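Hey,
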Amino acid sequence: MRISKRTLLAAAALLAMATAASAANMIGNCEVTGEKGSIPLASPAQAGKFTVAVSLPAPIWWNGDTPESIKDGMEYCMAAEMAWRAGYDKLEVKNVGWDALIAGQASGFDLAMSEISITEDRKKVHDFSVPYFNSDIGVLTRADAPVDAKSIKKAKIGVQQATTGAAFVTDKLGVTNVQVYPEQGDMFAALRAGQIDAAITDTSIVLAEELATKGKSVVIGQYKTGETYGAIYPKGNANNPIIDKIISAMLADGTIGKLGIKYLAAAWGKDPASIPYLPLQ
């Protein structure tokens, strides 16, 4: 059978169209699966793109050390999917210091996602999205010098400033020897250097650090708090209920669950629910 030049050209055109369509369904390394523009924003923070703030580093959730280098991760791909459903194929990432982010001193974004626990105090400063992840408080120690539920009360504990973990250590555990660090990376560096006996923050975060240290640190347990993660919105912004609708749709259709399997369960190598709960003694 002889194939005409016209047939070849038509086939090439179809292939080009298919390739373009496939490329259009990616933001960074994230495959976006919803309908583009199905839930449009009233007006984005920056024209022509969806802007999300994060406090780096946040491995597994945001894979990269700078906004320019990040192409995937749990929350990055969530933001990419939100951008797509809002009608944008460009995602702008802004790195913001944790204190400034939590205190409401940052601006110029549609939402912020940085493993942020929803609390009543924070609701006074921010609007929060619907919850998208359940989180408890985990205890990370050096593998060669672990603490336990009893010795932790007298141990030197590292916490990150202005986090729910910091409040938990003093208010619930009653620990008095506490070292406060401005950033998460500083706290983990202090643990690796032997300057503190344990680091306490969200179980999801300490599991990522356990993996990164390749056995030099270990999550020895967690405390039940009932906390959830949510995105921070600019207070009173007209886009907030619209983005809530997008997140709710992503929860309902399994998109967020699939991202959790891909980025969280696979990366940690264990289910956070398998980490034993420690008693508040």
